[in-house]
From TrEMBL, chains A, B:
Domain HTH gntR-type: 16-84
PANTHER family recorded: HTH-TYPE TRANSCRIPTIONAL REGULATORY PROTEIN GABR
Organism for this UniProt entry: Paracoccus siganidrum
Protein name: PLP-dependent aminotransferase family protein
Family: In the C-terminal section; belongs to the class-I pyridoxal-phosphate-dependent aminotransferase family.
GO MF terms held by the record: DNA binding; DNA-binding transcription factor activity; pyridoxal phosphate binding; transaminase activity
Alphabetical keyword list: Aminotransferase, DNA-binding, Pyridoxal phosphate, Transcription, Transcription regulation, Transferase
InterPro entries named among the record's database cross-references: Aminotransferase_I/II_large, HTH_trans_reg/aminotransferase, PyrdxlP-dep_Trfase, PyrdxlP-dep_Trfase_major, Tscrpt_reg_HTH_GntR, WH-like_DNA-bd_sf, WH_DNA-bd_sf
The organism's place on the tree of life at top rank: Bacteria
Classification lineage: Bacteria, Pseudomonadati, Pseudomonadota, Alphaproteobacteria, Rhodobacterales
Length: 486, 486
C-alpha cells in the first residue's frame, strides 16, 4: 500500500531548506520503522502538489535518497523504500521491576561541583550583553575562514583532514606559530618546544597534570581566571592564592616551597593590569632561585592598545623556567578550540604524551584551516579589525562609565576586551537585577579564592556588544546601582 | 630604495600555488624584517617577468596583500610595504652563561614512558600497509564530507562554528545519534544520557578519571586495546587483566572487589571474537551483583559482516550499569576526533564537567559538519561502501591467508577491519624484517599485559590496503616466516 502524500509535512519557518527537510523526514521515518522496505512513495507530482513546492525539489530529494540507497527507483512505476535497509532492533523500555545499578554511591560529584553555574548560555538573546570571550559577527572574518576551511578540505589535504596523527601536530601550523606569532612576542622556539592544545583551558589542564599532584604546592594570582582554579582544585596539589596589586603578582608574596606559579603578567585576568619589566625580572629571578616553574598565560596579548605590547615573560626568560600558554580563542574565535604551549622540549614531550593519552590530537582539519588563515594574512587583518573595533568600543565605554560615575577598579589597563569595576552594592544581586533588564554583566565572585571578596567587583566585557548599545547598557547598570543603594 | 625582483623566488615543484607562495614570501619577509615599512616593491610587470609568471598572478597577490594591509598601493607609483605594520621585538638568543632551569628533576617521564613507540607515522610510504585504524581514500566520501563542512560554514551557522559552547554539545548531533545511531544498536537514550568526546580515546580517559583512582580496582580483557591500558596505568587504580577465550571475556574470571570492568563484547579487540548472548547476560548479572560499572567499547560495530550485529550490552542492560562508548573514527575517519558516551545521566553529568575542565568541548564546526553528514544519509552510504569494500578485501585476505598457510588465531570473527594471527616466530622481529620489505604488520606485544605472550601473535588490518595488493603482501609475510623458521 503506497505511502500517502499526507504523511509528509514541511516546516516553512525552519531555517532548514525544504529539500533537506524532506530527505531527513524520509530517512527518519525509515529508521523509525514508520516507512517499511518495499513501500511505494507518492509520485513526485502528487507530493510536490501536496507540499506546495516545485517538483524539482521533490525530485532532487528522491534522487539523493536513491544515491544513498534509501530509495529504489523502478522505471515508470516510481520510488520505493529500498528492501536492503537493515533496521535496528527495537529495545523495549526498561521493565519497571528491573533492579537498578546504584550510581549515587559511586559518584562523588567532585567534577560537577567545580562547574561554574553563572554562565548564561543564551546570552545572544540579551540586548546589552557585556559578556566575555564570545565571538562577534561584526569582527570575525567569517568569509575568509570559510575560504581557508574549503582549501583545507581539498583533495591534496586528505591526509591532514582524515588521518590519525597519533601525537603529531600539523607541521605547517607549528612552523607558522614559531616564525610569525611567537617572534612578535619576542619568543624563539623550535618545533619540539611547541605543543598544540584544545585551547588554553586544555593547555592549563595538561600543565597542571604534568607538574602537580598530591603533595605538591602551587601559587595563583587572586583574583584569577576561574577555570584555572577549577583545574587546580582537581590536581591534588595545595593551591596558594596571592593577592595581586596595581602591578599584578608581587614576587615577594609567593610562599616558599611551591613547584609552580601561574601568572597573567602581560594582562592580569581579570584586573587588566600589566606587570612592569622590573617586576618581571624579579619574578624570573625568584623562579630560578626557588626552582618553581612559571606558567605564563599570555591571553589577549594581541589586543593591546598602548602601542607595542610589553615582551612576554618567556621572551626575557633565559633560564627556560617559563611555560608559555597562547590561544587563538580570542584572536580567531573560541569555537576553534586551539591553543598552544611553548616550553622546554623535555616538558613538551611529557605534555604531548599526556595529550595523546587523553585525546590523541586536535582535529587535523581545524589545524590545517588555521594554518591557512594565518599564512594568508587573514589573522593579522582580523587582529587589526578587532583592535580597531575594540578600541572604538573601549572609548565609548570609558566615556559612558565616566558620565554615569561608575568606579573603575584599575586604571591604566593596556587594553583587552573588558573593564574591571568596583561595585558599591553586592555584584551578584546586581547582576540578577540587570538580567531582568536585558543587561548581562559578570559578577566578580568566581574570580576570587574568597567569593565574598569578589562581590565588590564586576567585569564589563565589550567584545560582544556593539558600540551603539554601550551607552544605554551602562546607563541601566548605573541606574540599578543607584536603586540598590537607595 | 626599491626591493629588487631578484629578492623573490618561487618553487614550481611545490604543491602550493605560485600566487600563494608569493604572498607568503612577502608576508614572511615583512615579519622577519627583511622588507621594511615604506620600501617599494618591483612593478608587477618587472616581477612577473623575473618570475616567469602571468602578470595577473602577481597582481592578484599584491591586491590580496593590500586588502590585508601588508601593502599600500599609491596611484601610478606602485606598491609599498605598509607603514602601519608593527614588528615583533627581536629577542637575542639566550646568553650562553645564563643559568638554566633544571627540568630533569621535575619530570618523572611517567606519561612519555606510556607512549607506544611502535607506530609507523609514514605508513603511507609502504606498498603493503596492513595498518589499523587509518582512513582510506577509496572508501571515505571526501566530496560529501566537504559539502557538509561547507554547509556547516554557512552564515546561518556562525554561532555553532565560532561560539564557546561551555559544556554543551551540538543539539542536532546529539539528537541524531540518539534517534538514528543508537536505535540501530537497540539503545534508547535521552540527550542528558549522551556526552560527545574527542574520540573513544578521550571517552575512555574521562571514564577512567571519573570512576577510578588510587585504592580502586578494575578489570580489563587480555589482550586488549593498548590505549586503554595506557590510560588505566595513569588512573592510579589497580588493573587486573583477565584472559579472554573464544567467547571473549569470561565473567567468572573477573576478580572480586573491582569497581569497573572494560569490555569489547561485540567485537573483542584484537581477537575479533563476539561474546554470545548468554555470556552477555551473565556478565550483566555479575555487574549488578558485584556492583561494578561495565564499560562497553562498541568500536567497529558498523563493520559486521555476519548479518545483523548482535545487540549491544547497553541494549540488553536494564540496570543502567553499562557505560557505552561509541566512535566515528572508523565509520567516518580518525582525524574527525569525535566519539560519544552513553550512560546514566548522573555519570554523564560528572564526565561532562571533567570534559569542561580539561578541554571545554569538541570544536563546534566538527560537530555540526558531522550532524549534516549523518542527517543527509552520507554516513549510511559510506558504511555501505565500507562494508562492501572491507568485505571484498576480507575475502581476498582469507583466500591468501589460506593459500600461504598462515595461522588464524581465532575463527568466526564477525567482521571488522583486521585479522588476528598466531605467529610461529617472534612477531616483533618479524615485523622488523617485513618493514624492510615494504610490508607493515602489527606485532602483538602492545596488546598484552605480558608483552612476551604477545610475541606469538600479530594483527593484519585491511582497512588501508587495496585488495589488489593483499595477495603479494601476504606472500611476503609467509616468506619471511618460512625464512625465520629455517
Amino acid at each position: 500500500m503506497p505511502i500517502p502524500p499526507e504523511a509528509f509535512i514541511l516546516d516553512r519557518s525552519a531555517a532548514i531548506p525544504l529539500q533537506l527537510q524532506l530527505r531527513r523526514q524520509i530517512i527518519g521515518a525509515v529508521i523509525a520503522g514508520r516507512f517499511r522496505p518495499g513501500e511505494k512513495l507518492p509520485s513526485i507530482r502528487a507530493l510536490a502538489g501536496h507540499l506546495g513546492v516545485a517538483r524539482v525539489t521533490v525530485a532532487q530529494a528522491f534522487a539523493e535518497l536513491v544515491a544513498t540507497d534509501y530509495l529504489t527507483s523502478r522505471d515508470r512505476s516510481g520510488h520505493y523504500i529500498s528492501e536492503g535497509i537493515e533496521l535496528g532492533p527495537e529495545a523495549g523500555p526498561p521493565a519497571p521491576q528491573a533492579a537498578r545499578f546504584d550510581w549515587g554511591q559511586r559518584l562523588d560529584g567532585r567534577f560537577a561541583q567545580a562547574q561554574r553555574r553563572d554562565r548564561v548560555r543564551d546570552w545572544r538573546r540579551f540586548r546589552f550583553p557585556f559578556v566575555y570571550g564570545q565571538a562577534d559577527p561584526e569582527l570575525v572574518d567569517h568569509a575568509a575562514w570559510r575560504d581557508c576551511a574549503v582549501r583545507a578540505l581539498g583533495r591534496r589535504e586528505f591526509a591532514s583532514l582524515t588521518g590519525d596523527l597519533y601525537g603529531e601536530d600539523d607541521p605547517e601550523l607549528i612552523d607558522y606559530i614559531a616564525r610569525h606569532i611567537l617572534t612578535r612576542r619576542g619568543i624563539r622556539a623550535r618545533p619540539e618546544g611547541i605543543l598544540l592544545t584544545l585551547g588554553a583551558q586544555n593547555a592549563l589542564w595538561l600543565i597542571s597534570q604534568v607538574l602537580l599532584g598530591p603533595g605538591r604546592r602551587c601559587a595563583i594570582e587572586d583574583p584569577c581566571y576561574p577555570g584555572l582554579r577549577e583545574i587546580l582544585a582537581h590536581s591534588g596539589a595545595a593551591v596558594h592564592p596571592v593577592a595581586v596589586d596595581a602591578q599584578g603578582l608581587p614576587p615577594d608574596a609567593i610562599p616558599a616551597g611551591v613547584s609552580a606559579v601561574f601568572t597573567t603578567a602581560s594582562h592580569q585576568c581579570p584586573t587588566n593590569t600589566t606587570m612592569p619589566l622590573p617586576r618581571r625580572r624579579a619574578l624570573l629571578a625568584r623562579a630560578l632561585q626557588d626552582g618553581f616553574a612559571l606558567i605564563e598565560d599570555d591571553y589577549e596579548f594581541e589586543l593591546s592598545f598602548a602601542g607595542a605590547t610589553s615582551p612576554a615573560l618567556k621572551a626575557i626568560d633565559q633560564s627556560g623556567a617559563v611555560i608559555y600558554v597562547g590561544s587563538f580563542s580570542k584572536s580567531v574565535f573560541p569555537g576553534l578550540r586551539l591553543g598552544y604551549v611553548v616550553a622546554d622540549p623535555g616538558f613538551v614531550a611529557e605534555a604531548r604524551a599526556l595529550r595523546g593519552l587523553s585525546l590523541r590530537h586536535p582535529p587535523g582539519h581545524m589545524q590545517r584551516t588555521l594554518a591557512h588563515f594565518l599564512s594568508l594574512g587573514h589573522h593579522d587583518a582580523q587582529m587589526k579589525r578587532m583592535r580597531r573595533g575594540y578600541g572604538e568600543r573601549r572609548a565609548v565605554m570609558l566615556e559612558a562609565i565616566g558620565q554615569e560615575g561608575l568606579d573603575l577598579a584599575r586604571d591604566g589597563a593596556t587594553g583587552g576586551s573588558s573593564f574591571w569595576l568596583a561595585s558599591p552594592v553586592p555584584a551578584r544581586a546586581l547582576a540578577q537585577t540587570l538580567r531582568a533588564r536585558d543587561v548581562l554583566i559578570e559578577p566578580g565572585w568566581p574570580f576570587f579564592a574568597d567569593p565574598a571578596r569578589g562581590d565588590g567587583f564586576f567585569r564589563l566585557a565589550y567584545s560582544s556588544i556593539s558600540a551603539a548599545r554601550i551607552p544605554e547598557g551602562i546607563r541601566r547598570i548605573a541606574t540599578a546601582i543607584r536603586e540598590a543603594r537607595a
